[in-house]
Amino acid sequence: MTLKNEAKLASVEEIQQNFEELHYICSLQIATAVFLAYHLEKPILIEGPPGVGKTELAKTTAEMLDLECIRLQCYEGLDEAKAIYEWKYGKQLLYTQVLKETLAEILDGAKGLTESVAKLHEFGDIFFSEDFLEPRPLLKALKDPEGCVLLIDEVDKSDHEFESLLLEMLSDFQLSIPEIGTIKARPDRKPLVFLTSNNTREISDALKRRCLHLYIPFPDAALERQIIEARVPEVAEKLRNQLVAFIQELRDMDLKKVPAISETIDWARTLILLHTESLDPDLVRQTLNVILKFQEDIETVEAELQSVTNKALKES
Amino acid sequence: MDRTLVDFVKALRTAEVKVSPAETLDAMHAMNIVGYEDREFLKNSLGLVLAKNPEEKETFDSCFDRFFTFDKFQSSMSDEMEDDTSSAFDDDGDFDLSERGENQQSGKGGGQGGAGGGGQAEADLEESTLQPTSALGKLLMSGDRTELTIAMAEAGREVEVNQIVVFTQKGLYTRKIMDAMGLKGLQDEIGELKAHGGVPQSKLSGKLKKARDQLREKVRDYVEKQFFLHADESGKQLREELLKKVKLSNLEKRNFKDVQEVVFKMAKKLIAIHSKRRKTYRRGQLDVRKTLRSNMQYDGMMFNIKWKSSKVDRPKVMCICDVSGSVSNYSRFLLMFLYSLAEILPKVRSFAFSSDLGEVTELFENSNLEDAMSKTMRDYGNGSTDYGQMLTDFKNHVLDDVNNKTTVIILGDARNNYGDPKAEILREIYDRAKRVIWLNPEPRMSWTVGDAEMKKYAPACHQVEVCNSLVHLERVVANLLKSVS
Fold it and tell me: B235 falls in which pLDDT band (50, 70, 90)?
């Protein structure tokens, strides 16, 4: 497989560096996954709690390689008409209407039904050719002349049937359309496929077997500090250490939804807007709704706010 | 290296990481790309290919570390060897210095010619020129730990130490490996040296002996490690298989934890099978109205025919458990099983009785199993069993909630202490419920012996089963799920 910016995928360190330039700070595992996905030509199945940068990884990879990122958002009831292809029914109808007269001319002189049909057959399946095919994300990704990054987001939300539909695409990079035949990706332009899952249900073994499996956990303090530094460079170092320490404390608490990286970033931005220089309990209380999304959680944390804040301040 | 990878995959499988042959092939491809120079990189890469969920990743990590620990092992070995050689010299004379320093000194000693220390040094010199002849002896004395480790690993492979099953085989495999490494040659040499009787000879034989004992220690360690890697988990599997078959009343408290694990595993399997929501419902009769409506677009031609379909609901399970002494263990595991299936059996109501019936649904939903069980025992466990009273209570309080979607499971030995069985109430339940299943832990033969009332109850049940081991339980629950999905 050769993509145009292949050099950027030459080694794991290279990938890590290139990601860093695009403000995506990643662990060694993540970079290794991208490296292997490219060299083994295998899709990556990314799992992890929401907000740790699963989708972002695919987007950043596309940006790094300067490729198009084709995204397929999964939901219950997603079927092949939405994911692979659809016949342009309207266009087919319109063309038959417009061509009615031409058809009459062609059929001119033919006697009987058999002869007319035989004559029509000479034109082949014009109405079921690629001109009347509306490609959907999966097909688009296969046919992309440059190669592309295909992001199949939240696979766990789709039905079991759809999962099985993906198998052909993921193992052989090909799709079968009954009327046309099998469409294959160019061997040197296979798309880089990322699948993400929030683990709302177990993904089938068949799908897992075809993928590299990457689990992205919440980052440790050092990594999170780096991420904040890359994403919100305006935050002063002192505040950054404090807020990361605070979030790390929260993650150890028994909450319905613990704050993820995206919440940390949002919070950092909020604090910048409020011209904060250092954390204090009052300020935290006011901005708690940025990092916690359930009233219960907010109440739980508020009760222990003082101690958690102090701990965070001490640690940083 | 391929062979090593296959061995590693085998170790992973015994540690319950499911690795398919296709994934093994992928791992080989990955290895070809990654190479083995960078340990962390290799570990990450293999982890991506072989372990497919967070739990498996954890197991993978520990397995990888255990499997590829040769370098650590080497250094510890060389340390000890070094210690040993230096201490050996300590015994000879007072040389605390390294070998080279010692040689220099001994040279000086020879030059001075006279002092007692010098004489000893000369002996040392002579000894160091006397080299062992057997292959293993040479290896041991050469001090090349890497070679030694490799030799050991190769010998281990030769005798197939990865086939080790039970811990009593450790001694056997240790000896086998020692033999494969050429222990016999070494023994012979030691014997010969001793027979020779000279001072340097006996010294060398002593050294060789010491080295041999150390090597044996190391090999034993190695076998131990292999045992943990290859057999520990398979032993566990064996135990689990046994636990599934053993009579639940014979289980002792210390086994409960293991049993719980087994139950969860079985439940997980059932969930995996039954959690898939089926879209195609059972097809019923022709639905005229729907058909007419949907065919209006075709000018009323009956083109697209619609059928009445009935959606199949998950069963509402009511579980009545005898918690008197003799049957309490069975109840415990039935309830454990049912509540482990919460994901696919959301509506379980449970009742406990020995004489009076009480609902314990909330107890089980809100607290962990152990607590709930002990509380249930405390509240309902005393008193003699009275099935008649239980059925009366059930009729008074719960019977109204029983409808044609309810499955009632009764677990008990039907030993009614010669009281009134009130089988007619069970009949009433039978008429209303979808299914009534009676699980009896006693063997069929004793169902009619003594105060057992099974003969009266059985006709009012859809299904009567002997149920006294986890295998039975699993079968019953699987059937329960199958009849509905």
Answer: low
Structure tokens at A189: 């332009």
Q: Given the structure tokens 């002593």, which residue do they identify? A: B206
* Exposure b/e, A196-231, CB count within 10 A at least 16 = b: bbbeeeebeeebbbbbbbbbbebbeeeebbbbbbbb
Q: What share of chain A is helix, strand, coil (3-state, %, to 5)?
A: 55, 15, 30
What pTM does this model have?
Answer: 0.67
Q: How distant is the alpha carbon of residue B193 from its chain centre?
A: 50
Going B314 to B318 to B323 to B326, the CA torsion angle's sign is: negative
Helix and strand counts by DSSP (H, E) for chain B: 22, 8
The helix/strand count (H/E) of chain A reads as 16, 9
**How many CB atoms neighbour CB B173 within 10 A?**
23
Q: Which of A15, A16, A44, A213 is the mutation pick for testing B, counting most B CBs within 10 A?
A: A213
- What is the rounded CA–CA span in Å between residue A45 and residue A202? 12
Place of tokens 């490609």: A135
Instruction: Count CB-CB contacts under 10 A for residue B343.
Output: 13
Strand ranges for B332-377 from DSSP E: 348-353, 357-359
Neighbours of B290 (CB within 10 A): 14
Query: Of the candidates B22, B48, B275, which has its C-beta nearest A212's C-beta?
Result: B48
Q: Check residue B279 and give its pLDDT.
A: 52
- Confidence check: pLDDT of B148 > 70: yes
**Chain A residues lying within 8 Å of B20, measured CB to CB:** 209
Which of A49, A74, A45, A56 has the alpha carbon at shortest distance from A194? A45
ipTM: 0.82
Tell me if chain B has a CB within 8 Å of the CB of A184: no
Q: What are phi and psi of B440, to 5 degrees?
A: -120, 125
Mutate to test the interface with A, among B26, B41, B48 (most CBs of A within 10 A): B48
First to last CA, chain B: 48
A206 touches chain B (CB under 8 A): no
- Taking the C-alpha atoms of residue B343 and residue B268, their distance in angstroms, rounded to an integer, is 10
Please, what are the averages of pLDDT over each run of 10 residues along chain A (316 residues)? 76 90 89 91 90 90 91 88 87 86 78 81 77 88 89 89 87 86 86 89 85 90 89 88 89 86 90 86 87 87 85 80
Q: Residue B30 and residue A40: Cβ atoms within 8 Å?
A: yes
